[in-house]
Amino acid sequence: MNAARQAFAELFGALILTAVVIGSGILAARLADGHEAVALLANTVATAAILYVLISVLGPISGAHFNPAVTLVSALRRETPIAVALIYLPLQVAGCVSGALLAHAMFDLPLLQTATTVREGPAQMLSEGVATFALVFAILGGMRFNPNAVPAIVALTIAAGYWWTASTSFANPAITIARAMSDTFAGIRPIDAPGFIAAQFAGALVAWAVAAFLFAKEKS
Fold it and tell me: What is the pTM of this model?
């Protein structure tokens, strides 16, 4: 696979994903008239839908990680070469930040913002660890048993995560950075972001370990 195409797919996919997450949050908050549950539902549906589309069309090119935690586990499993992973990581962050700027521009908001939404405390950190565990575990299980279903598996895992975790399932260090730069429905205070990111990587590593045990191929 052409390395330039792989790199661009990760950058472009992260950009579109973040633009949808933040943009749908902005519109949902405007239309929900103060009903946060309605806004969250709209944000959930849009995010799950674009994940299915992006993974389906970009997965064959780059693997459609869009997520440093996913790339880390893929590298640990020796499915993504270290050199490629080191290229993916900054592009994922750059793509997510660019997606936040695009969302702001589309809704005529200041491009540069600092989020003020409070997402702090042990419960929030635990939620992010659990959410990322669920995402990575679902990806690895799908790849092991039903690769063609991975786009749907990821979309459904994130959709569920919006509603069963206290943090609404960011599950992605790169998008967490971008959401810290957006004072909108999807935002997170910059001071809270490092805790989320640490929990996300921890959850991904636990998922890697559990999947290595559960999904190991039986020796003949």
Answer: 0.96
